[in-house]
């Protein structure tokens, strides 16, 4: 089978909710990283085969196939198509998978994968409210097949985060310590310039504005998001945010044709699913499945990026896998850096690639929990 190579990966800074990027249209936010990738690589814009972008809640400014719209908003050739992917929080990681699969199949040579999300303009509740306008209280409530299988079991991320914490015996205080560490790692990485090569500044913002100066004492004062979930507060949850990210995936033929230097090879990609009521647990079996499929052990992996949807998700994964916390989310995660849903997968991939290059590591693994109880896993090899 043909190989798929990463030759570039960039992202916008992550804007906090109602922050610097709040008024940027989703197409323009996506165009920002698309244009930067195209401008700095020796591939004629008309030679791109496709643009695959992740986005969740494709309504309002994110509707109308945002991948295509963002490419056009960047002023790029009309002939290049685009398609938008929704695998919930893993949308842009799946976009990278689709790009790599197109290249590995031999049907495409140059694919730009990524994602965008403007959560200030389109809050996480927006799609639910839109559905209610058509008489649907939730995406599942009116399905007789769903109700026959799952009855009235809650499909709720807060429920899942608390259930995971309870199942693995993870106390609120431990989650708060994890969250504080995420902010501290992100602050140190920012001050050391670890993100500088991967961020394309926008509107004068050259760093992630989601990183907080906080303390365990301040976290302890927060009320739970709901009394039913006593351990889950805003402090131990990912932040809503505005951002975009993009990864350029090419074939070996494209490397030769355009004189490109590959930065990494896609070593493995897979996606698995788990019980949707657990909702956030899938990275655990998905990681086991991925390693088995490609004949690797976690000890072969130098760095891991796992999305910090909630502290309990990553902590349970670490308990089950035994992977070294010191090599997990080494520059902080979504608790500190934000979780702009459709952009997060490409953001994690971008950070993973740059950190492997900075530290000299060889293999990096990325995974994240996704709606419906799903999880993608990507393993890249730095070249």
Automatic annotation (TrEMBL):
**Cited NCBIfam families:** AcCoA-C-Actrans, PRK07801.1
Protein's recorded name: Acetyl-CoA C-acetyltransferase
Give the Thiolase C-terminal domain ranges.
261-382
Please name the InterPro entries in this protein's record: Thiolase, Thiolase-like, Thiolase_C, Thiolase_CS, Thiolase_N
Q: Which CDD domains match?
A: thiolase
Q: What class of enzyme is it?
A: transferase
Q: What is its EC number?
A: 2.3.1.9
Q: What is the active site of this protein? A: 89 (acyl-thioester intermediate), 339 (proton acceptor), 369 (proton acceptor)
Write out the similarity annotation.
Answer: Belongs to the thiolase-like superfamily. Thiolase family.
**What keywords would UniProt list here?**
Acyltransferase, Transferase
MF terms from GO for this chain are: acetyl-CoA C-acetyltransferase activity
- Please tell me the species this chain comes from: Crenobacter intestini
Q: Locate the Thiolase N-terminal domain: which residues?
A: 5-252
Q: Does the keyword Transmembrane apply?
A: no
């Amino acid at each position: 089978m043909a190989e798929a190579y990463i030759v570039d990966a960039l992202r916008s800074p992550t804007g906090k909710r109602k922050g610097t990027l709040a008024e940027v249209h989703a197409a323009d936010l996506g165009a920002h990283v698309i244009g930067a990738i195209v401008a700095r690589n020796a591939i004629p814009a008309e030679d791109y085969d496709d643009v695959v972008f992740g986005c969740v809640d494709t309504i309002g400014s994110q509707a109308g196939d945002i991948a295509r719209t963002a490419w056009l908003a960047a002023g790029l050739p009309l002939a290049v198509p685009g398609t938008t992917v929704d695998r919930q929080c893993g949308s842009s990681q799946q976009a990278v998978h689709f790009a790599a699969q197109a290249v590995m199949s031999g049907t495409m040579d140059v694919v730009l994968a990524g994602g965008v999300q403007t959560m200030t303009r389109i809050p996480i509740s927006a799609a639910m409210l839109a559905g209610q306008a058509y008489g649907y209280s939730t995406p599942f409530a009116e399905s007789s097949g769903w109700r026959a299988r799952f009855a009235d079991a809650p499909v709720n991320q807060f429920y899942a985060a608390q259930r995971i914490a309870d199942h693995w015996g993870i106390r609120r205080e431990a989650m708060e310590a994890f969250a504080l560490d995420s902010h501290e790692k992100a602050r140190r990485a920012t001050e050391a310039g670890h993100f500088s090569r991967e961020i394309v500044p926008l509107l004068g913002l050259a760093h992630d504005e989601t990183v907080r100066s906080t303390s365990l004492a301040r976290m302890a004062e927060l009320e739970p998001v709901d009394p039913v979930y006593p351990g889950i507060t805003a402090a131990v949850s990912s932040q809503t945010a505005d951002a975009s990210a993009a990864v350029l995936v090419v074939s070996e033929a494209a490397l030769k044709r355009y004189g490109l230097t590959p930065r990494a090879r896609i070593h493995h990609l897979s996606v698995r699913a788990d019980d949707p009521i657990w909702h956030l647990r899938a990275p655990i079996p998905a990681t086991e499945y991925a390693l088995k499929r490609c004949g690797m052990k976690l000890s072969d992996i130098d760095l891991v990026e796992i999305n910090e949807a909630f502290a309990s998700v990553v902590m349970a994964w670490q308990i089950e896998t035994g992977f070294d916390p010191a090599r997990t989310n080494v520059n902080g995660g979504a608790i500190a850096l934000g979780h702009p849903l459709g952009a997060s997968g490409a953001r994690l991939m971008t950070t993973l690639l740059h950190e492997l290059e900075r530290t000299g590591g060889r293999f990096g693994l990325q995974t994240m929990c996704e709606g419906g109880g799903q999880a993608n896993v990507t393993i890249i090899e730095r070249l």
